[in-house]
Amino acid sequence: MTIKTEQDIVNLEKAINSCRRPVWLVAPDGKQFNLKNTMERYAGIAMLLNDKYGEMEIFTSCREDEIIMMEFYSSHVCEAA
């Protein structure tokens, strides 16, 4: 996943805020960021901004949150195309 614009960040934060449980951003080296934690969210978004190859992955803690993040991802991919 890549984040390129300020609007991407706004939309990602809206999706994260809609989730009820932890949302994890995982780097290829295994480093994890809980995006529901404010400090980790900023660090994670900074990593996403530098993720030129789209190697970072997002994981959720429950099915409902997975649906929210998939909707974000789907709209993000469609807008980028």
Plain-language structure description:
By secondary structure, the protein is an alpha+beta fold. The protein has three helices and three strands. It has a three-stranded antiparallel β-sheet. Helix 1 packs antiparallel against helix 3.
What is this structure's SSE topology?
Layout: H1 6-18, E1 23-26, E2 32-34, H2 38-49, E3 57-60, H3 63-80
Helix pairs in contact: 1-3
Say what oligomer this is: single chain
Strand content: 5-15%
Largest sheet: 3 strands, antiparallel
Give the structural class.
alpha+beta
Uncertain runs with pLDDT below 50, 5 residues or more? none
Q: How many strand elements? A: 3
- What is the count of DSSP helices, taking H or I runs of 4+ residues? 3
Overall radius of gyration: 11 Å
* Order of the strands making up the biggest sheet: 2-1-3
